[in-house]
Amino acid sequence: MVYRRANLEHAAASAPNMMQNGLLIGLLALLLLAPTLPDVTVWNIHPVTPILLGFYFYGTRLIQGAVDNPMWYPSVTSDTRQDEPESESSLPSLSRLWTEFLVL
Description:
Largest sheet: none
Radius of gyration: 22 Å
Number of helices: 4
Distance between the termini: 36 Å
Order of helices and strands: HHHH
Number of strands: 0
Strand content: under 5%
Helix content: 40-55%
């Protein structure tokens, strides 16, 4: 909601990744809503429990659908940069990494 520099498909690894985050936020919102509801149970099960399960399974089906048939495709903009692997020479040596690790 606050990353306005570019579209989220530039900032996120994939559409299913973004949808999993949305599903997590939705599930957590249901859990936060549950204590504010009346104290009612059916066979000692709170009504939010089956709603959580249904929401989870429905969300995972939506995510699987996004993998198979995405709703949008990323487009090249001025903020797009090609992902190029770093060269071996720019990586620090193993001895330097161990030294930094031990110092920390």
